[in-house]
Specification:
- This protein is mainly alpha-helical and 154 residues long.
- Among the domains are: 30 residues; 39 residues.
- It is 25% helix and 5% strand.
- It is built from 3 helices and 4 strands; from the N terminus they run ββαββαα.
- It starts with a strand and ends in a 9-residue tail after the last helix.
């Protein structure tokens, strides 16, 4: 059964590594039966993203749980490798991880979602608010700590 190249729409046979028309790398970029890693829904050929949650689709064999150390495949439900104790889970390629990180990075947490946490970066608005809040708190502390009998002037 011939397939069409996602880049130039030229036909190619199953098992081809490169497109004869444009040189597109079919081995790395073409997925015959793509699957969403989140909802596990199967899609037709040349579909790149899930229409439900927007994840980039992967090959079905990429969703098989593997050991993080020895890369041995295990059935669903196994948490740790009995051979070397490595964590068993779905191992995504570097390209798949970066696209998922970009999708996650697109959603911002609300301001002051974790006010006492040291993880992450402080945003500009939070920084400006802290510039105003800290001197205000300092002034209030001075007012409560100063005794009326002392003669301190600003």
């Amino acid at each position: 059964m011939p397939y069409n190249c996602p880049s130039c729409n030229a036909s190619f046979e199953k098992g081809s590594n490169f497109c004869e028309g444009c040189g597109y790398n079919l081995k790395e970029n073409f997925i015959e039966a793509p699957v969403c890693p989140k909802c596990k829904m199967e899609y037709s050929v040349n579909t790149k993203y899930c229409h439900k949650d927007g994840c980039r689709l992967v090959r079905p064999e990429d969703l098989v749980p593997k050991c993080s150390i020895c890369k041995r495949e295990y059935p669903e439900g196994v948490s740790f490798c009995p051979q070397d104790g490595g964590k068993v889970g779905v191992l995504l390629t570097t390209q798949q991880q970066t696209t998922q990180q970009k999708q996650i990075a697109g959603t911002k947490p609300p301001m002051f979602a974790h006010p006492f946490s040291f993880e992450g970066r402080i945003r500009r608005a939070e920084y400006i608010l802290s510039i105003f809040i800290i001197p205000l708190l300092y002034f209030v502390l001075i007012l409560f700590c100063i005794d009326d009998s002392t003669d301190i002037r600003f």
